[in-house]
Amino acid sequence: MRTEGHDFTRGSAALEPDAVVATACQFCNANCRMHVSLKANRIIDIKGEPYDPVQLGNLCVKAPMMPELVYNPLRLTKPLRRVSGQKGSPDTKFEPMSWDEALDIIARRLLELRDAGEARAIANRTTGRLPRGVGSLVARLFALLGSPNNTDVGPVCNDAGANALKATFGLGNFTNGYGTDQATGKEDLGAARYLLFLGTNQAETHPVTFEYLLRSRVQTGAKLVVVDPRRTATGEIADEWIAPKPHTDLAMALGMLHHIVLNDLHDQAFVDRWVLGFDELKSYLLSSGYTPEWAAEVTGVPTPTIKQAAEEYASTTPAAIFCNAGISHQLGAFDTYRVLTFLAAVTGNIGVLGGGCNFMHNTWPGDLELPPLRAATPNTGAALPVGPDYFAESILTGKPYRLSAIITQGNPLVSSANTGRVKEAFRKLDFYVYTGLFMEEAAYYADVILPVCSALEFEGVYMRRDDRAIRWQNAVVPPVGESKPDWHIWIELAHALARNDRRNPPSYWTQAFPEQWADYRSLWSEFVEHTPGMKGMSAQRLDARAEPLRWPCPTPEHPGVSALFLDHPTWYEAAAALGHEGKRFLTPSGKVEIYTPELEQSLSAAGHSALPTFYTHPEVTGGHPTVAYTDRLVTNPVNPKALTPVVHLGVPPTGDVHHRYPLMGMTGRPSVVHFASVTHWTHTGKQLNGLRFIQIHPRTAKRNGISNGDPVVVESPRGNVTGAALLWEGIREDTVFVPNGFGPAQSVGDLFSDPRYEAANTLVDDHYFDNLSGQQAYKCFACRVRRA
C-alpha cells in the first residue's frame, strides 16, 4: 500500500520477504525479469528488474497473473485416463493414474504403430509455452521412432517472417536489438528515426519493449507509422495510422517498393556492394504495374499516403520495420515478408544499428542441438504439409496419409482454423495425449492427460525476448501436485519406450536420453556445447545478468550480437561460429539475395517466385487475384523436411461468398490483459477482460441494427461466434474484429457471469494457408454480423 510516496508494506513483519527469487515472465516475448518475494514459501510480491536499461523495472498487467497459474484450483495435478464418454463431451469421465502407468500406455501405443509400419502416423503438435529446448528432445524421440511429424509452433505463430529473412539475408531471425549494442556501446533500436509498424500492436502485445521504443523516440524524434485495418492502442500513440483493407499489405509493400526503386530513392552504394538481383527487381517492377496508384485501388489507402510512407522510409536513416502476426497470419505471408526485406535492402537499412527487419518472434537459432544419436535411426520419410491444421485434413481424408496418434502441448481446439472441422478430426483420432495446465477444450478429446508445471515451478530458460535475448529463470515454488516440467515428460517417455520396446535394447532409448538431463542445467550445457553460436551462453553467465544475453554469442567473452550483419568484428566472429567464415550476409553469395536463378528455381517448384506477385485471400472483397491449390505435393522449398501442395497464383476469384457474407473479419489479441488462452484461466484475466468485445464501425453497426453493447453474432461460411458489440470509430467500415483466445471450457469467467464463448477460429477457413511457411490466414474471413 502506498500513500504520499510511502510504501507501508516495508518494515511490516508479516510482509517482509524471507527470500527473493529472480525469474522471468512467461506471457510475451518482452521476456521481463521478475523478482518474486516469498514469505513462508508463498508468493507475496513481484517486482520488475530495475537494472535492465530496457525494462527499467517495468512490468505489465500480466505479470501478477503468474502466481494465479500456480495457485489455481483448476490446475491439473495428476495424470488422467479417459474411462467413459464420447470424445469432446464435457461429460467425459477421467480417472487418475500414476505417471509410470500413463507413460507406459503412451509408449505401448506408439510402439504398436511403429511395429505395424505406421510410425509416420504419430505426430506431435507443440506450442510456444514450452521451455527452450524441449522441441529438441521431441525431435530426438521422433527420430528414434521413425516419424517425421514433429511440428513446431511456427505456423500458428510467425514462421513466415523467419523463412523470408533466411531466404533474403541467410539467417531467419529478428535482425536488431533493444537497448545498447555491447560491441559498439551505441544504441540499437533506440536509435531508429523512423518506425514502420505493419500488423503489430505492440502496446498490447509487447508493452515493456514498446515502452523502451517510446522513451527512445522522445530523444530521437522518430516518426511512428502504424499500418493496421483498425486503430489499436499502438495506432493511438502513432504519428500516423494507415488502415489498409485486411490481407492487402503485400500490395502496399509492393507499391512502396515501386515508388522507391523507380524514383531512384534507394541507396545505390549499398545496393552495388551488397545486393544481388536489384536489376532484375527493377525490371520486374517496371513491367508489373505495381505502382502506388495500383496499390491504392487494392488497399483503399490513398496514393499520396503510400508515396509519403515510401519517401519517408527511404530518406530517414536509420529506419526500422516491425511486423507481427498481422502480417504472419496472411495467405501470402512469406511473399509479403520477402517484399519487406527488399525495402530494407534497397534503402541500406539492414546491418545497421537502429534499422532492420524486426519480424517478431523469429528469435531462436532453430532447434537447440544435442549430441548426435549413437544408434542408427529409421528413415522417417516426408512430413505432412507444413501447417497447424493439416492434421485435420490427414485424419479426415487420409491424404497424403492418415494420422493415428497425436501428442499436443497446446490447445488445437482454440488455436486451429475452422475449429468445427478440427473437433470432428479429434473425435475420430485413434489416440490423443494432451499435456497442459488445465482442462482446456482439447483435454476433453484426450485418451491420456498429463499435468505440466507453470513457469514459476522450474529452473531454466523459458521465454525469449524478440531480439534473440534470453534470461535464466530460477524456480520460485515447487511443482504443484504431481505436475512435471515438459522436458521431464519427454525424458521419462523415452525410458518408458525402453521398458516396452521388444525390437530394440533399452540402451537404444536410454543412451539418447540420459537421466541427468532432468537437471535443466545439465541439459542446457549440452545445448551450449553443440548449438552453433551459443558457447558464450552458459547458465552461470545468464543467471548472473540483470540484462538478457543475445544470440549469437560464440564465446564467454563475446558481448552477444545486437544488429545482425553489422559490419563489425564481433559480427564476423559470430558468423564464423555459424559456419560462414568471412561472410557479412549468410546467403550462398555472402550478399543480400533478392533474386538469384537458384532461388527462383527453388521457389518455383511450389508455385512461387523470387520476385513475388500479388495475390490475396479469396474472401477479401474487391475481386483481387488469389490462389488455387493443386493435388500435387512436392518438397517444401523453405521447409525441406515436409511436403507442400503446388499452388497457382493470380487465379481470379469468383466473389460468390460476398453475396451472403459482405464483410471481412479478422482475429487478434483482446487487450493487453491476455496472452493466448492461458490468461483466461486466471481470476484477473477474466475480471479485467472476460467479455469478448467485437469491434464494429458505428456506420456498419447502424446498417445492421446494432447498438453499443448489444449481444451480436458473427457468422462466416464455417460457423458463428458470439460477443458484445463495441462500436469503434477506429476500424474500417468493411471490417469486423473478433478477439481470439476465448474458449467454451474457460470456467473461471463463471464467477463474473461471463459467457462461455466458442473459439474465434471457428470462423476461419483452414483450406487457405501459405504453402511455404504453413501460416494460417487468421487475418481475413468473409462474414456478416447481426444482433443476437
Report on this model:
The protein is α/β, with parallel strands linked by helices. The chain contains 25 helices and 31 strands. The strands form 9 sheets. It has a 7-stranded mixed beta sheet with strand order 7-6-20-19-18-8-9, covered by helices on one side. Helix 3 (134-145) runs parallel beside helix 18 (486-500), helix 4 crosses helix 14 and helix 8 runs antiparallel to helix 11. The mean pLDDT is 96.
List the helices and strands and how they pair.
Elements: E1 2-3, E2 6-7, E3 19-24, E4 33-39, E5 42-48, H1 66-70, E6 80-84, E7 93-96, H2 99-115, E8 122-125, H3 134-145, E9 149-151, H4 159-169, E10 180-181, E11 186-187, E12 194-198, H5 202-205, H6 207-220, E13 223-227, H7 233-237, E14 240-242, H8 249-262, H9 268-274, E15 275-276, H10 278-288, H11 292-299, H12 303-315, E16 319-323, H13 325-328, H14 333-346, E17 357-359, H15 390-397, E18 405-408, H16 412-415, H17 419-428, E19 431-436, E20 448-451, E21 469-470, H18 486-500, H19 507-510, H20 520-530, H21 539-543, E22 549-550, H22 569-577, E23 592-593, H23 597-604, E24 626-635, E25 643-651, E26 663-668, H24 683-689, E27 693-696, H25 698-703, E28 711-716, E29 719-727, E30 735-739, E31 781-787
Parallel strand pairs: 8-9, 8-18, 12-13, 12-16, 13-14, 15-23, 16-17, 18-19, 19-20, 26-30, 27-29
Antiparallel strand pairs: 1-2, 3-4, 4-5, 6-7, 6-20, 10-11, 21-22, 24-25, 26-31, 27-30, 28-29, 28-31
